[in-house]
């Protein structure tokens, strides 16, 4: 019998590797493993409890509530959208994936996380901007274009508003204060 577990904070490929290693260490049979979810074969409720404790120690959480699962799936979808530099409309993108109206998704997300979907996306984008500045492979205009800003001025204004410093100040710091993706909310 297959059991699907939804795992909070499993938002990047290093997280996926850590979860896979923990599941294998405990001797459980993995059917499939994706960001935010693990499908395991022949696992008992005792095994799930054991795995939950193990994953909690690594900063992950096995989700039980349907709304928590949906919110985590929304986060993963937004992370993938920002990471792939997908320029499609966010509300249409999420509505299409989850087959629910954007206002419903937005309200659910806000109630669970205490911030709006749009604010979450902006926070992710600011971390992506920091990463791109740190890599030094693009100038500010190229960064703005790659993240679908109308112009670099709009990005610069938003960056200053969100971080309290200009992109140039951040670039010159060399002591970059970046957040892990799972620490954004």
UniProtKB/TrEMBL annotation:
<dbReference type="InterPro" id="IPR018060">
    <property type="entry name" value="HTH_AraC"/>
</dbReference>
<feature type="domain" description="HTH araC/xylS-type">
    <location>
        <begin position="105"/>
        <end position="173"/>
    </location>
</feature>
<dbReference type="GO" id="GO:0003700">
    <property type="term" value="F:DNA-binding transcription factor activity"/>
</dbReference>
<protein>
    <submittedName>
        <fullName>Helix-turn-helix domain-containing protein</fullName>
    </submittedName>
</protein>
<keyword id="KW-0805">Transcription regulation</keyword>
<dbReference type="GO" id="GO:0043565">
    <property type="term" value="F:sequence-specific DNA binding"/>
</dbReference>
<keyword id="KW-0238">DNA-binding</keyword>
<keyword id="KW-0804">Transcription</keyword>
<dbReference type="InterPro" id="IPR009057">
    <property type="entry name" value="Homeodomain-like_sf"/>
</dbReference>
<dbReference type="Pfam" id="PF12833">
    <property type="entry name" value="HTH_18"/>
</dbReference>
